[in-house]
């Protein structure tokens, strides 16, 4: 199954000193042709020193300001477009650990099936327990089922391969994307700062006719949230993710569909946790048509200075 095709690996770091060596060292030992680009978003720890000292990357880009995940990914992609012939790009989180054998297998699917635009392994935690990696885009039907505590059906669909399943979107911690597919969707979305870029890119791949799949027999270990504590907004992160998801659906769905899905999600939150929560407030505003950017601006203004400092002029993205 080993392929000599060049595979580009893109890692965006922010205060990732504790994980970056483990993330990339095994790939650097491998003789297979990996071209690794690390884009550092203004780390204040020793992330860049570790990358340089241990020789973890072919290219290290140091940003003086953290402009967000999507911007950093696109920086790397622009350099790759000029300097190498990789047929696939792996978007790899610095707290995700994957073996060369896993990447070789994922790349084999891209080479075998020209319809596949992106493929992911199953993510597992440090105890080896499987994380929910594959998801559906939200619809009236999925949200109605969730209100009554029913799992959405059809998350995984059959494909032409034994262990591979078609799905709508996958968590982007270890996402291998065909280079031509990435060109079709013009890289990563830059409007979110952090979170939801994986949903967005999978949706745009689907719009262009590419399949998104998950290999249920390969795994990658993912810690998750390793740098949040250093940025000061760990507790605010779920709200950022929620508002970014609302922004995503505003981008691609009608206003009526966005409002209705927000209302269905609100009913689920009320049923589970009651009416008085920040999450319920966000969804209530979205259900009556308040734009996500306006919601985000209003809620961010009420956050501690440590949170506002991180997100100032970057999130929510201006119109």
What would you say this structure looks like, in words?
- The chain is globular.
- It has 13 helices and eleven strands.
- The model has no long low-confidence stretch (mean pLDDT 92).
- It is of the alpha/beta class and 319 residues long.
- Helix 9 runs antiparallel to helix 12 (292-300) and helix 10 packs antiparallel against helix 11.
- It starts with 6 loop residues before the first strand and ends in an 8-residue tail after the last helix.
- It has helices at residues 20-29, 47-53, 69-83, 100-112, 140-147, 179-185, 197-207, 228-231, 237-252, 255-273, 278-287, 292-300, 305-311; strands at 7-13, 34-41, 59-63, 88-92, 96-97, 116-124, 134-135, 164-166, 169-170, 174-178, 211-222.
- Helices cover 43% and strands 19% of the residues.
- The relative contact order is 0.13.
- Strands 1, 2, 3, 4, 5, 6, 8, 10 and 11 form a nine-stranded mixed β-sheet that branches. It has a two-stranded antiparallel sheet with strand order 7-9.
Offer a few descriptive terms:
319 residues; alpha/beta; 13 helices; two-stranded antiparallel ribbon; 9-stranded mixed β-sheet
